[in-house]
Amino acid sequence: MRIDLNADLGEGYGPWPMGDDEALLDVLSSANIACGFHAGDPLIMERTVRAALARGVDIGAHVGFPDRQGFGRRVMQVERDELAAMVVYQLGALAGIARAQGARVTHMSFHGALGNMAAADAELAAPLVAAVARFDPDLTILTSPSRAIEDAAAAHGLRIAKTFLADRACDRDGLLVPRRLPGAVIHDEALVLERVRRLLAEGVVVTHEGERLALSPDSILVHGDTPGAVALARAVRGAVAEAGGKVVPLSRRNAAPA
């Protein structure tokens, strides 16, 4: 079993940090870097790319609404054409910074409210995924289970990598439960690890409704902005090793083992 371990990084702004990115990058195999809209700025992006590159960690673009005050977790009413342009704008920003350091962006993911909306709405997912394909058809879209995003990616010939959010509850369709609901965000490390171990051993996750949902993820995500994220990421990596697996970056997951 070869599986990726990822987190959302670079989510500070100016002198205000968010999470311990340096320590997390010692544990992760892929990083989803904020592109300046919901969080991040050019210097933070550059530093995070450089740190990821030094560790052989895949570099991904994490795109969201232009909502720093709400950390991209508030719904915004924006026309689809404008949202598609915002996706390209953010992808271009990170790709330029990566290229200047001799690196490339390997994947992208949608953040927060934008991601939740696209995952549940095929009419919104279609233009956003089309924008990704126009920008770089070699990008992989990293997403929690979503028929809308998966179908849009297939229509444009884009690769999909499914990620399991270890510390977030999902519903019977695999969609994330809104953060306002009790139990939507799982803070208990023991419970998070129980979910990861069940996933690795049985290929299932217990949904917010208490049902068993079959899931075969390519990646596991730990939120880097939550307290204890570094210790949790290490514990999840340990659980993968205990299950006989190996943590590898998304771009090398399907490569033949050395």
From TrEMBL:
Gene3D superfamilies: Glycoside hydrolase/deacetylase (3.20.20.370)
UniProt GO MF annotations: 5-oxoprolinase (ATP-hydrolyzing) activity; ATP binding
Gene that this polypeptide is encoded by: pxpA
Cross-referenced InterPro entries: Glyco_hydro/deAcase_b/a-brl, LamB/YcsF/PxpA-like
Enzyme class, first EC level, given as a word: hydrolase
Membership in a protein family: Belongs to the LamB/PxpA family.
Keyword ATP-binding: yes
Functional note: Catalyzes the cleavage of 5-oxoproline to form L-glutamate coupled to the hydrolysis of ATP to ADP and inorganic phosphate.
Subunit structure: Forms a complex composed of PxpA, PxpB and PxpC.
CDD domains per record: LamB_YcsF_like (cd10787)
Chemical reaction(s) catalysed: 5-oxo-L-proline + ATP + 2 H2O = L-glutamate + ADP + phosphate + H(+)
GO process terms (BP): carbohydrate metabolic process
Key word Repressor present: no
The protein's name: 5-oxoprolinase subunit A
Annotated keywords: ATP-binding, Hydrolase, Nucleotide-binding
EC numbers: 3.5.2.9
